Amino acid sequence: MIEFRDVTKRYPDGTVAVAGVDIVIEPHSTTVLVGSSGSGKTTLLRMINRMVDPTHGQVLIDGEDVATVDPVQLRRGIGYVMQNSGLLPHRKVIDNVATVPLLRGEKRRAAYDRALELLDTVGLDRSLADKYPSQLSGGQQQRVGVARGLAVDPNILLMDEPFGAVDPIVRSELQQELLRLQGELGKTVVFVTHDIDEAFLLGDQVVIMQQGGKISQAASPAEILANPADAFVADFVGAERGKRALHVTELDGRRLVVDGDGRPAGVLAS
Amino acid sequence: MTWLWSNLDRVGELMLVHLALSVPAIILSFVISVPIGWIAHRYRWTRGALLSLCALLYAIPSLALFIALPVITGLGLRSPLNLVIALTLYGIAVIVRTATDAFDSVDRDIRQSATAVGYSAAGRFWAVELPLAGPVLLSGLRVVIVSTVSLATVGAVIGVPSLGSLFTDGFQRGIQAEIITGIVATIVLALVLDWLSVVLGRVLMPWSRAKPTGARAASAAPAAEADAA
Ligand SMILES: Nc1ncnc2c1ncn2[C@@H]1O[C@H](COP(=O)(O)OP(=O)(O)O)[C@@H](O)[C@H]1O
Ligand SMILES: [Mg+2]
């Protein structure tokens, strides 16, 4: 479990990126931080692995204040995936995936074997192992990024707009892959996005942030849609524009869900 | 040509002497400049001072430095060590700015991602920042190689033998072939060292030549992704 207790981050230049945040993140669930650019999502995420230290309040992992843990050791136990993959361009794919196990002192042989298995896990061909990241497509690079994040079998996986830079088709595939993976692995995932649809698709809990680093609402997607906390949330999730005002209609004996523009959104499961 | 054939031994010998002067200076200036460049990159407030200092170094007239150094170091005027020190100082002046740029050129995202996966500050320097700064560092090294090999000839004026001795001697005795030989030998030496540094770069940085299949991969991406999924 990850817990934020009254956490504030004020950068040296005076910018308050996160203001008085309280969140509880349940284990084996996906929490999505969503908000427009500059709302403090990255800052909040990075306080979990101490890439940013709060100026006030505490971040706890399983009851332990992260401020008491050595940052380098802490980070080696937490998966991190970022936009544009963050892969090391001078290392082959296999070395990128095996980076953290090798940093932790694992034997090269074992680390490579596991890295190859991880390529399978994220749906990449093993023949890509000897390529450099620049020789891969954007979507493939993101998959390698995910594989690297999973390499030490961490309990916690932090993902900062991991699918933000790929085209919509690839993006949707990666989202489905993540859902599948999460179904199998059951990590505690904290995922950052500015895309509310992505947040609702992936999140068990969705945390809506607004400028100034405040939380507007933290709840399940269903709860947020049913009971938006305020006008900001309602606007952000598109409820007021009728975009999400779904209703059920019958066609050829099947019950279809249709959105406000009359576009079918799916078939109602019976 | 006849002059060259009958003096081949001497030219070869001077080439070796020239190498012995310039190679240590090249290596020293590189090894000293990399940490200075890193400091100027890492601690912004030192940048202005460090870079101006190095630029100033370059402004010192070489002959004056060659004559002043023995006084400072206490070594004899004709000691080759003085020349090596002077060449090192000029080398530093040439390469520090490039070294700073080299570290600046390392993508911020990549540096942060290295931190995020658990590199210590030192581990990140050796495993990430230094190799990624490599291509720009190499370009700086190549300039230093050429400028040092060329500048080392000036030593002949103060009596430190080098390929430059062929110019001074050729002038004094009016042997044009000797002067031309000196110039050509210096250029050849610089080109050979430059070529060696490029080969070394290729061996040490195979990734910098990895052909980005970017364009092809991008257009093929949806299909590849569909296969993978
Ligand atoms: N290192 C920093 N120094 C100063 N201000 C920063 C720094 N990092 C982020 N900020 C500011 O903090 C705010 C939140 O940034 P960030 O956490 O990156 O938001 P998001 O990820 O939601 O776009 C922004 O106003 C940003 O400009
Ligand atoms: Mg961000």
From TrEMBL, chain A:
<feature type="domain" description="ABC transporter">
    <location>
        <begin position="2"/>
        <end position="237"/>
    </location>
</feature>
<dbReference type="Pfam" id="PF00005">
    <property type="entry name" value="ABC_tran"/>
</dbReference>
<keyword id="KW-0067">ATP-binding</keyword>
<keyword id="KW-0547">Nucleotide-binding</keyword>
<dbReference type="InterPro" id="IPR017871">
    <property type="entry name" value="ABC_transporter-like_CS"/>
</dbReference>
<dbReference type="GO" id="GO:0016887">
    <property type="term" value="F:ATP hydrolysis activity"/>
</dbReference>
<dbReference type="GO" id="GO:0005524">
    <property type="term" value="F:ATP binding"/>
</dbReference>
<dbReference type="InterPro" id="IPR003593">
    <property type="entry name" value="AAA+_ATPase"/>
</dbReference>
<dbReference type="InterPro" id="IPR027417">
    <property type="entry name" value="P-loop_NTPase"/>
</dbReference>
<dbReference type="InterPro" id="IPR051921">
    <property type="entry name" value="ABC_osmolyte_uptake_ATP-bind"/>
</dbReference>
<dbReference type="GO" id="GO:0015418">
    <property type="term" value="F:ABC-type quaternary ammonium compound transporting activity"/>
</dbReference>
<keyword id="KW-0813">Transport</keyword>
<dbReference type="InterPro" id="IPR003439">
    <property type="entry name" value="ABC_transporter-like_ATP-bd"/>
</dbReference>
<protein>
    <recommendedName>
        <fullName>ABC-type quaternary amine transporter</fullName>
        <ecNumber>7.6.2.9</ecNumber>
    </recommendedName>
</protein>
Automatic annotation (TrEMBL), chain B:
<dbReference type="InterPro" id="IPR035906">
    <property type="entry name" value="MetI-like_sf"/>
</dbReference>
<feature type="transmembrane region" description="Helical">
    <location>
        <begin position="50"/>
        <end position="75"/>
    </location>
</feature>
<keyword id="KW-0472">Membrane</keyword>
<dbReference type="Pfam" id="PF00528">
    <property type="entry name" value="BPD_transp_1"/>
</dbReference>
<keyword id="KW-0812">Transmembrane</keyword>
<feature type="transmembrane region" description="Helical">
    <location>
        <begin position="15"/>
        <end position="38"/>
    </location>
</feature>
<dbReference type="InterPro" id="IPR051204">
    <property type="entry name" value="ABC_transp_perm/SBD"/>
</dbReference>
<dbReference type="GO" id="GO:0055085">
    <property type="term" value="P:transmembrane transport"/>
</dbReference>
<dbReference type="InterPro" id="IPR000515">
    <property type="entry name" value="MetI-like"/>
</dbReference>
<feature type="domain" description="ABC transmembrane type-1">
    <location>
        <begin position="15"/>
        <end position="197"/>
    </location>
</feature>
<feature type="transmembrane region" description="Helical">
    <location>
        <begin position="179"/>
        <end position="201"/>
    </location>
</feature>
<feature type="transmembrane region" description="Helical">
    <location>
        <begin position="81"/>
        <end position="100"/>
    </location>
</feature>
<dbReference type="GO" id="GO:0031460">
    <property type="term" value="P:glycine betaine transport"/>
</dbReference>
<keyword id="KW-1133">Transmembrane helix</keyword>
<keyword id="KW-0813">Transport</keyword>
<protein>
    <submittedName>
        <fullName>Osmoprotectant transport system permease protein</fullName>
    </submittedName>
</protein>
<comment type="similarity">
    <text>Belongs to the binding-protein-dependent transport system permease family.</text>
</comment>
<feature type="transmembrane region" description="Helical">
    <location>
        <begin position="143"/>
        <end position="167"/>
    </location>
</feature>
<dbReference type="GO" id="GO:0005886">
    <property type="term" value="C:plasma membrane"/>
</dbReference>
